[in-house]
Amino acid sequence: MTPLIEMVGIDKRFPGVHALRDVSFDLRAGEVHALMGENGAGKSTLMKILSGVYTRDGGEVRIDGKALQLATPRAAQDAGIGIIHQELSLMNDLTVAQNIFIGREPRHFGFVIDDKQMERDTAALFSGMNVVIDPKRFVQGMSIARQQMIEIAKAISHDSKVLVMDEPTAALNDREIDELFRIINQLRDAGKGIIYISHKMDEIQRISDRVTVMRDGQTVGTRNTPEVTLEEIISMMVGRALVQDEAKVPDLSAAPVALEVRGLTRGREIRDVSFSLRKGEILGFAGLMGAGRTEVARAIFGADPLDAGEIFVNGAPRRIRSPRDAVRAGIGYLSEDRKHFGLALPMSVRDNIALTAFDKFARAGGLLDDGAMHRTARESIQTLDIRTPSDQQEVRLLSGGNQQKVVIAKWLLRDCEVLIFDEPTRGIDVGAKSEIYKLLNRLAAEGRAIIMISSELPEILRLSHRIAVMCEGRLTGVLPGGQSSQEEIMALATLRPSQTVAPSEQEQPA
Amino acid sequence: MTDTLRPGTTTGPAPERVSFFATATAQRLLAFASLIVMVIVFSVLSPNFMQTSNIIAILQAASVNGVLAIAVTLIIITGGIDLSVGTMMTFCAVVTGVVLTNMGMPLWTGVIAAILTGACAGFASGTFVARMMIPPFIATLGMMMILRGLSLITTGARPIYFNNTPGFDQISRGSLVGQVFPSVPVPNGVLILFAVAIAVSFILNRTVLGRYTYALGSNEEAMRLSGVNTAAWKTAIYTLAGAIVGIAGLLIASRLNSAQPALGMGYELEAIAAVVIGGTSLSGGRGTVLGSLIGALIIAVLANGLRVLSVAQEWQIVAMGAIIIAAVYADQLRRQKTG
């Protein structure tokens, strides 16, 4: 049988980088083929060639046995390739139906749009997927999961034979992932080919038929998923075997309490949340997306107002009404979206590290002491092992893991004793993740109090000394680290105050 | 604890209902309400304000700025800005003057010349922005100066009068309505404004071009990845806006019965002000013709009302600036509520 897609000997160069070297990849009809590799391995570049965003410098792409050029996104679309980008690309100010049919609206007289027809077609698409979304709703304010469903519907409506999904579950909760996998299975059964890019091993094992691993712009190998072990995939990805650390929970009963919050409340998002955190402790925050973890963090940090609640730092009550107050009280917050809220991407590593602490480097007359900034930046680069050619390198050119380290360096410089990490390893590849873990452990060992919000349970279990679990704005329980199971956490994460609440929250009747 | 329940919701946990005051409609209603309040205040303060002749003067004054504002609305919805509409309008008027007065061609050729000149100038701006990737602010700043220079060169800096073309002044000043209903002599210029408004509203709401205008301002890259030729559509929108500016050129030339080459600077800012007061977002993706129309009326009412009350013109300018800031601040407050 001819494969749906054959990519042979693909070569791609960017100025200064040989991004893809002699890469081969194939996809059969009716299979889910996982594509794995660390960030920068070349997965996205390969998919951008397949979807016509980049043109290749060498090699051949055959679809259904026919060699094709695929010079533009349009050409790839016409060849039956649909891609769901990691950064979702819908237009917020347009409705669901308008988004799905952008570029090929049904028309009267060639220029007047037939919105009714478009909405009917959209409704039919969704009912085929067993999803309930109103075609007339504006995309603005819809959850990532919904937006993904819309993107998938859009790809299906193009009669795509091939669907590329780039980290589709990055922002989904477990229920939404189940829903997504149901639809992926449905598409596979319908004979479509699906290329699934992800960092998450458990998902790959759950959904894929074959897995191809890339490293440094080359394909390392392709395996049938049921026959391959996790360790084997990881060693293929990093080129070495990784050692899995167990969470070591230190005895902190004598350590002073660094942060205590009592009765934090805001509307429906935060309901009467109280907890305390000792110096040297890592408190993991687990819960489903939208459980209120980020909201609690932002409230403690003064980024959003509170209706009620008290915050004590080192035993003393503090009024925190702005991030400025929080920083003065020694609390730092590392946002889950570091590109938007954590970094000035076009500025240098040095400037980013010194950015929030310019007062430390200011001399009389507001002049900046460049020498001192340089020394501080060098020091941070060394202690945190930030991989950058120099402290003058623009931050946007660093990998995700190293960008995260720059953010951490920035907060360390502010002498924060309480650090709140919101999804610290999102979008960071496996090798760099374990470095971030080591760094968190080291910061705790140095006596800093750490809150770590994470949607990845293995990460929570591996790092947390205690695990706080939230559901619908409430703190539903605190579990001891090192001995709790994923099941115990999930039980608390779905613990609703009354069983009658559950049915109405059901999103999509299957 | 059932307060979080919204039975029957099938579209997930995202907030379903947005407070009415947070909608764009609210912003337009707010603008409309301010307009009404202004009219009431001025009519109480001055008995002359509500006279038919004065109302017509206000509408007449709003017509040129209104048409320009509609053109700018299109550009701003795409996420751009157009600083050249004022001098472009003048250049269109000048070309009409050349065609009608200097070349002695018939009236209709002058109308076509104005619209065509605007479309060409718009096409040029669109090409700079969409194909040559020059930021709209810079591209239209350049166009503003180029067109002003061309107007002065073409005319030798002297006005061109339309005395040889009888009926030209009727385009704006005549009143078809007045012939039917002599008591309400609404000038043709106002009719043209409303006609343009209705036509552009239709284009924005119901046609492909209009849909892509919003889509461009909302997420241009997403559109490109959907296989849409974004550069071509963007150029088309600038071209359409240019043609509308051509109509404004006709209106002003007809009202003054002359093409004044030195005129035009400053009109672009007044047009942008009208658009902003009308609730169109400068970041693109949102906006309506109706809003800009109301914005243009607010500016005209304010200028007229203050003049009727004998407030010095300098203070009128100050008042205008204050209104712009107040309008955008109201919009900001609204946004913060939506979060």
Properties at a glance:
heterodimer; A: 510 residues; Rossmann fold; 3 domains; six-stranded mixed sheet; globular; disordered C terminus; B: 339 residues; mainly alpha; ABC transporter involved in vitamin B12 uptake, BtuC; 13 helices; disordered N terminus
Describe the sheet with the most strands of chain B.
2 strands, antiparallel
End-to-end separation of chain B: 25 Å
The proportion of residues in beta strands of chain A is: 15-25%
**CATH topology name of chain B:** ABC transporter involved in vitamin B12 uptake, BtuC
The whole-angstrom Rg of chain B is: 21 Å
Total helix count of chain A? 19
* Percent helix range of chain A: 25-40%
Radius of gyration of chain A: 25 Å
Structural class of chain A: alpha/beta
Number of helices of chain B: 13
- Rounded mean pLDDT of chain A is 85
Overall 3D form of chain A? globular
SSE sequence of chain B, one letter per element = HHHHHEHHHHHEHHH
How would you describe the overall organization of this protein?
The complex is a heterodimer of chains A (510) and B (339). Chain A has 510 residues and is an alpha/beta fold. Chain A folds into 3 domains: 5-90 and 139-238, 3-Layer(aba) Sandwich (Rossmann fold), CATH 3.40.50.300; 255-330 and 416-497, Rossmann fold (3-Layer(aba) Sandwich), CATH 3.40.50.300; 345-415, no CATH class. Helix content of chain A is 34%, strand content 25%. Chain A has 19 helices and 22 strands. Chain A has a 6-stranded mixed β-sheet with strand order 6-9-10-3-11-12, with helices on both faces. In chain A, helix 15 (400-413) packs parallel to helix 16 (430-445). The longest helix of chain A is centred in the middle third of the chain and has 16 residues, at 174-189. The two termini of chain A are 34 Å apart. The model of chain B is unreliable at 1-18 (pLDDT under 50). By secondary structure, chain B is an all-alpha fold. Chain B has one domain (25-37, 47-332): Orthogonal Bundle (ABC transporter involved in vitamin B12 uptake, BtuC). Chain B has a two-stranded antiparallel ribbon with strand order 1-2. Chains A and B meet through helix 2, strand 8, helix 5 and helix 19 of A and helix 9 of B.
